[in-house]
Amino acid sequence: MKATLLRSEDYTRSPWKNGGGIFTDIADAHRADAPQKSWDSLLWRFASTPIVAPGPFSHMPGIDRLQMVVSGRGLVLRAPGQDFDEREPFTTVRFTGELEIVTELEAGPVEVVNLMARRGAAEIDLLALRAPADRQLAAGTHLVYAAGGGCRIRLDGEEFSVSHEDTLKVELTAAAQLALMSGLAVLGSIRLIG
Predict the structure, then answer these.
(1) Gap between the Cα atoms of 38 and 127, Å rounded
(2) Nearest-5° angle of CA 78, CA 82, CA 87?
(3) 113-157 confidence digits (pLDDT tens)
């Protein structure tokens, strides 16, 4: 097990793919053979972003996406023939980057977290944990994001404190037991394929 605390002051900020806003890049991975990091070399990304006005989502062919509101409420994603309801915070929605999505804000701006992965390169999961909570983690990369204030976790007997908006990145070669002892956390899980 390798555990690394990612501090919010060290996160990078970049424009959305469509230029419509700015996202905070919390953690990501790119193809090892890529000459530079780009959307084309992306394997997975865990990020947060404010959505302050209705508008279109970036077109991301070949990318699977999970999203959750962590601050505010009333977000609906409108796509041809279907809607994705995120009105209540900490509800996960799954969609593909090919969908033409426009946001609708029913109660003002929101902050969301996104976990995205190149289709066929990784399997991803995103869920909210409220203390007390126990969860078995499979081998892979797991991100414990303190979205609602600080939180404390125990991972196979070792305790960690994670301050508000910081993230504990855990890389596992075998299964481990996670216990959320206090607070609320968003857990992003990534398992590379192949």
Answers:
(1) 27
(2) 55
(3) 999 999 999 999 999 999 898 999 999 999 999 998 999 999 999
* CB distance 166 to 152 below 8 Å: no
8 Å CB contact between 95 and 83 = no
Contact present, 169 and 3 (Cβ < 8 Å): yes
Contact of 37 with 74, CB cutoff 8 Å: no
Greater confidence, 126 or 15? 126
Q: For residue 32, with 0-12 CB atoms within 10 Å meaning exposed, 13-18 middle and 19 or more buried, which class applies? A: exposed
CATH of segment(s) 10-120: 2.60.120.10
Instruction: Of 55, 46, 67, 62, give the one whose Cα is nearest residue 21.
Output: 55
Structural domain boundaries in the chain: 10-120, 123-192
- Per DSSP, 58 falls in state P
CA distances for 54 relative to 93, 111, 127, 148, angstroms: 18, 13, 25, 24
116: left (phi over 0), alpha (psi -120 to 50) or beta: beta
User: Strands 176-182 and 140-145, how do they pair?
Assistant: unpaired
In whole angstroms, what is the distance from residue 126 CA to residue 84 CA? 15
CATH fold match for the domains 10-120 and 123-192: yes
Superfamily name with CATH number, domain 123-192: Jelly Rolls (2.60.120.10)
